[in-house]
TrEMBL record:
Name of this chain's protein: RNA helicase
Lineage summary: Eukaryota, Metazoa, Ecdysozoa, Arthropoda, Hexapoda
Residues spanning the signal sequence: none
Record bears the keyword ATP-binding: yes
Pfam family, one: Helicase_C
Xref: CDD domains: DEADc_DDX39 (cd17950), SF2_C_DEAD (cd18787)
Length: 384
């Protein structure tokens, strides 16, 4: 973590002066909700008074009732309140900012009104697809995704000829487009960070985020979401926000992975492959994700599984962006049932059919284990 001295402190000078003058007065109560949000709420999405076009898309997706996180956040988010939300993966955090920003969106001109940033290209691609899914009945809404590894000229052409109202991307590419004056954020109304801790804990990525933030209007909505938010990173997040509503999952509930069956198999290194093949033969699974610790092991294990007639595919950071997205789509569309991946894949990914995850190599810390094992609702982590 970098020192807080280099952070942008986003606070009105007038508010600061007022706080100094009224130092003896009682502080205003914070809007904060805490709990373990794992259930579905009895209310319906119609209770949020969303646009008919959005409700129609929600019905098409098969959603009837919001999760507890959605029930707590969406009513305030649609009113433009800043939101800081930490809840484990699979609880519907993405839908909070997608639905809230679409509800407030009035795309009357060729301006960027919504900016969503995340730390990986795959997650950016997935979020853009969620926007497309929920906005399909909203005429004229344009969504674009920008990230590194693709020709920047294509992004510049999109911004010039068909300026999107919603931009999703990674900080590096977004900053490059802002610095080149191709991406104009003067009309921005919503600034969102998904998996915000991964961006703000990295000094380089945080500097990119801060520089982008400085190029946005003062009076905008800021929302940040993550499956893990340490007590150290929360004040950093709030530097960007004004009196946010805070929704935190209890740390104890976060780490216990409620509802998941976890199995540990003690093996020597040269025994792992045989045991993996045995388990894949006897376990009933829809789709499987196998996490390894390096690119070389990812390539080797994916090839070995294919040689043993298991329908496997690998994803790692040494691939071209087109290849990574192609393989992600193949797995998501059920063309392959087994995915071998490094930690690059786990965080923020949402593949409905996965019901078993193998930790072929143990992660180095508990947060990484959490994200490997908790990016979906119902699965059985098996660790070697």
């Amino acid at each position: 973590m970098a020192d807080n001295d280099d952070l942008l402190d986003y606070e009105d000078e007038e508010q600061a002066d007022q706080q100094t003058a009224d130092g003896a007065s009682e502080a205003a109560p914070k809007k904060e909700v805490k709990g373990s949000y794992v259930s579905i709420h009895s209310s319906g999405f119609r209770d949020f008074l969303l646009k008919p076009e959005i409700l129609r898309a929600i019905v098409d997706c098969g959603f009837e009732h919001p999760s507890e996180v959605q029930h707590e956040c969406i009513p305030q988010a649609v009113l433009g309140m800043d939101i800081l939300c930490q809840a484990k993966s699979g609880m519907g955090k993405t839908a909070v900012f997608v639905l809230a920003t679409l509800q407030q969106l009035e795309p009357s001109e060729n301006h960027v009104y919504v900016l969503v940033m995340c730390h990986t290209r795959e997650l950016a691609f997935q979020i853009s697809k969620e926007y497309e899914r929920f906005s399909k009945y909203m005429a004229g809404v344009r969504v674009s995704v920008f990230f590194g590894g693709m020709p920047v000229q294509k992004d510049e052409e999109v911004l010039k000829t068909a300026c999107p109202h919603i931009v999703v991307g990674t900080p590096g590419r977004i900053l490059a487009l802002v610095n080149s004056k191709k991406l104009n954020l003067k009309h921005l109304k919503h600034f969102i960070l998904d998996e915000c801790d991964k961006m703000l804990e990295s000094l380089d990525m945080r500097r990119d985020v801060q520089e982008i933030f400085r190029n946005t209007p003062h009076g905008k909505q800021v929302m940040m979401f993550s499956a893990t938010l340490s007590k150290e990173i929360r004040p950093v997040c709030k530097k960007f926000m004004q009196d946010p509503m805070e929704v935190y999952v209890d740390d104890e509930a976060k780490l216990t992975l409620h509802g998941l069956q976890q199995h540990y198999v003690k093996l020597k290194e040269n025994e792992k492959n045989k045991k993996l093949f045995e388990l894949l033969d006897v376990l009933e699974f829809n789709q499987v994700v196998i996490f390894v610790k390096s690119v070389q092991r990812c390539i080797a294990l994916a090839q070995l599984l294919t040689d043993q007639n298991f329908p496997a595919i690998g994803i790692h950071r040494n691939m071209t962006q087109d290849e990574r997205l192609s393989r992600y789509q193949q797995f998501k569309e059920f063309q392959k049932r087994i995915l071998v991946a490094t930690n690059l894949f786990g965080r923020g990914m949402d593949i409905e059919r996965v019901n078993i995850v193998f930790n072929y190599d143990m992660p180095e810390d508990s947060d990484t284990y959490l994200h490997r094992c908790d990016f979906l609702n119902a699965m059985q982590p098996i660790t070697y």
